[in-house]
Write a structure and sequence with these properties.
Elements: H1 3-21, E1 30-34, H2 40-48, E2 53-56, H3 59-72, E3 79-82, H4 91-97, E4 100-104, H5 107-116, E5 124-129, H6 143-154, E6 159-165, H7 174-193, E7 200-202, H8 209-214, E8 219-222, H9 224-227
Parallel strand pairs: 1-2, 1-8, 2-3, 3-4, 4-5, 5-6, 6-7
Helix pairs in contact: 2-3, 4-5
The structure holds pyridoxal-5'-phosphate.
Pyridoxal-5'-phosphate binds near residues 34 and 83.
Amino acid sequence: MSTIDQNLQAVHHSIAAAAAEAGRPAAGVALLAVSKTFGADAVLEAAAAGQRAFGENYLQEGVEKIAAVAAARPELKLEWHFIGPIQSNKTRPIAEHFDWVHTVEREKIAQRLSEQRPAGLAPLNVCLQVNISGEASKSGVAPEQLRALALRVAALPNLRLRGLMAIPEPEEVFARQRAAFARLRLLYEDLRAAGLALDTLSMGMSADLRAAVVEGASIVRVGSAIFGSRNYH
Ligand SMILES: *Cc1c(COP(=O)(O)O)cnc(C)c1O
């Protein structure tokens, strides 16, 4: 068994343990394997171990990797998630090559993604990135502006608004990790109460996966615990 295979099993085990702790079915938590900085070979190894959803942060690297993996194994049906910062002049390749985007924080970006989504493809799945750590983080829509943005994005024809995503400031203490994720969950529940059909809370990475699952994550984004530590970026 490869290291990636072993690591994937260990991560699935952690997810199952955290879900059990929270009285949730483990099947309600999807694992997104964050393959940024790792090559197509690492993706193929994870795919051989059964992993199907992969996350990329850097557009050019991601697009090249998607092509390399498709060339090597055209029969593999993988799902690609863009989880990095989005520049407004670089939306087209995201709309063309990815299945999901987790990092929409402005209406202008959402409009461009919707306009540029190729007609033959299913709507692009979108999560809004929320700034739940206040001034400590510059990325994400402010909670006070979230509802207005969500209503506008939900109305765009070629996007499907699925839910919310956040990257809280790193915290060592479990209770503080939980508190940040609980804030995102409350915002999510508010939007659902307002009538939006959301089903996705994208939260939790290698270091805070347990807190995120306990607070209701439906997608955890895990990189280093699967592929090892990154050497650059
Ligand atoms: C890199 C990254 C991850 C994965 O982080 P790890 O600590 O390696 O698990 C998850 N989400 C986003 C947005 C990232 O940029």
